[in-house]
Amino acid sequence: MGLMGEYIARNMNPKELETELLKYISKYNKHKNTFLMIYASAIGKLNVDPLLTLCTDDYYTIYDMLKDNDAENLDFYIETPGGSGEAAEEIVKFIRDKFKIVNFVISGEAKSAGTILALSGDEILMTKSGSLGPIDAQVRIGRSTVSSHDYLEWVKAKHKEATDNGTLNLFDATVIAQISPGELNGVFQAQKFAEDLVKEWLPKYKFKNWTVTETRKATVDDKYRQKTAEEVTTKLVDHSLWHSHGRSLKIADLNDTVGLKIIRVDDDPILADIVYRIQTILRLLFLNTTTYKIFATEHEKIFKNATQGSIGLPQMLPAKQSDVISFDVTCAKCGDLHKLYAKFIPNPTIDKDFKARGFEPFPKGNKLICKCGFETDLNAVRNEIETNIGKKFIL
């Protein structure tokens, strides 16, 4: 049985999963003699995508949680679809100034700005399931978000075509005519910002103790470190290698193609079990609650939860009595209001009273089907209510 199956079989509620998460953070710290910080986003969670990205507010949360910490070393577990390069820079400035050694741990996805962040580490530890991604900046052009690398390459190609042939086809000429110098410069600067961060951080941190090449045993000096950092950066922005900004770069890609030395978590069975359990617990918390971002250490946790406005979940109403709770659910498709109730004791009088007032019982399958046919998944709502109230629904 896999870890997900194991935890599902244990039927743990969110509070128990939170306790389990802190337990395995503690196990990690003892095993590696370090201090572990968790920063994870619910990648792919429907309707909250804008909230998932790495942002300046995350920097402030991380700063607040770590500013009084007296540990020398930090291991930073990260799962993120990417986000602000400026926020990544702020986080790196803080943690590199605060801690002597900083390592990054990846068992899920750490894409785009997450990859940039990880490249500031002394070491990168990855499981077989972990992945980084290309670091080309994503920029807004018109109504679309595009790769800055692809955009600049297209402009260069059209410039060469116009120079060689003395003309462009009507479509390309029309598109080119709409590009302002300011827009083009903005795309260039966004890409250069990401590249410059990696070129600065790799020699300063990951390559700082690299003195001899692995195969030829040649001496490595500052000039060689910088040259290698530039080569790594070029490969991480080159779409001719990866073909997609969302491409998952695994350990073999990073070691063999990019030229980064990645530490394989799976080579240490005890560490691997701890890290995979942390990843599984995070997945379950994201699946079964409205949480979309988790910050956690052994002693502290901050969960960011989606509101009714962000994902259309019901707004809680005060319960009429301690044995029952009522709330409204608005259909995300047609806007119809459903008045639901859930009881915590097997009392048929509750059903009679609430049905007479126009309430529907909480659906047994945890899925509310509106008359328009739209289905609302209430699993996360039920888990949160039961956790907060401390009682189980009687359906």
The total of beta strands comes to 15
CATH class of the domain at 3-133 and 248-305 reads Alpha Beta
Overall shape: globular
Percentage of residues in helical conformation: 40-55%
Strand order within the widest sheet?
7-4-3-2-1-8-9
Describe the fold and architecture:
With 395 residues, this protein is an alpha/beta fold. Among the domains are: 189 residues, 2-enoyl-CoA Hydratase, Chain A, domain 1; 78 residues, no CATH class. Helices cover 47% and strands 17% of the residues. The chain contains 16 helices and 15 strands. The protein has a seven-stranded mixed β-sheet with strand order 7-4-3-2-1-8-9, with helices on one face. It has a four-stranded mixed β-sheet with strand order 10-11-12-13, with helices on one face. A two-stranded antiparallel sheet has the order 5-6. A hairpin with a 2-residue loop joins strand 5 and strand 6. Helix 2 runs antiparallel to helix 13, helix 4 runs parallel beside helix 5 and helix 9 packs across helix 10. It is globular. The two termini are 30 Å apart. About 4% of the residues have low confidence.
Describe the structure using short key phrases.
47% helix, seven-stranded mixed sheet, 395 residues, four-stranded mixed sheet, alpha/beta
